[in-house]
Amino acid sequence: MNSFQVSDLAKQRTAVLDAARNGRAIIKDNKGSELVMLPNVKLEHLELYKEWTLNLNRLRSYLQPGGRPDVAGWGDLAWLRVFDNDDLTAFCDELSDELVIDISGDDFTGLDELLHDWKATAGQLEDPLRKRVLLSPGLDQDDFTEAEAPAEPGDK
């Protein structure tokens, strides 16, 4: 761990900045406080992790008997209200796994993809017709017809 004094900001600025770039630099001020310098992307990842961990706990509380709120109660997670408890449980399980993977690898693109995919599904479930098709028990072979390949330009 790289600790510095306030005076080191002038005397060893290169070392302080290198430590911050490589993870973090702790600067102890004259009043005993410790200040941390770190790459902004690392701070953004920590904030994402915190935000979605809190959201995960909130969602899990909605899965308790009588825990599902009205639309306003969902707040910024209102897009998830279209899912039943089984789907919401699956989302929570996937989110929990993804948070562990992303924080350990310091890469949150997996979280972005997970949210994008679930939001796309939620958008489809908003439409009653699409919801009925998506949640229907299944399709039989008779539900399909063979399509012919399109004719090439110039073919008659």
What does this structure look like?
By secondary structure, the chain is mainly alpha-helical. The protein has a domain at 41-134. Helices cover 55% and strands 7% of the residues. It is built from 7 helices and 3 strands; from the N terminus they run E-H-H-E-E-H-H-H-H-H. The protein has helices at 8-11, 13-21, 40-62, 71-74, 85-105, 109-126, 128-134, and strands at residues 3-5, 25-28, 34-37. A 3-stranded mixed sheet has the order 1-2-3. A hairpin with a 5-residue loop joins strand 2 and strand 3 (34-37). Helix 3 (40-62) packs antiparallel against helix 5 and helix 5 packs antiparallel against helix 6. The longest helix is centred in the first third of the chain and has 23 residues, at 40-62. The chain is elongated. 8% of the residues are buried. The model has no long low-confidence stretch (mean pLDDT 89).
Shape: elongated
Radius of gyration: 25 Å
- Runs in which pLDDT lies below 50 for 5 or more consecutive residues are none
The averaged pLDDT comes out at 89
Major sheet attributes? 3 strands, mixed
Strand numbers in spatial order across the main sheet: 1-2-3
Spatial separation of the terminal alpha carbons: 76 Å
Helix and strand element order? EHHEEHHHHH
Q: Helix tally?
A: 7
Tell me the fraction of residues in β-strands, as a range.
Answer: 5-15%
Amount of helix: 55-70%
Number of strands: 3
Could you say which structural class the secondary elements and strand pairing correspond to? Answer: mainly alpha
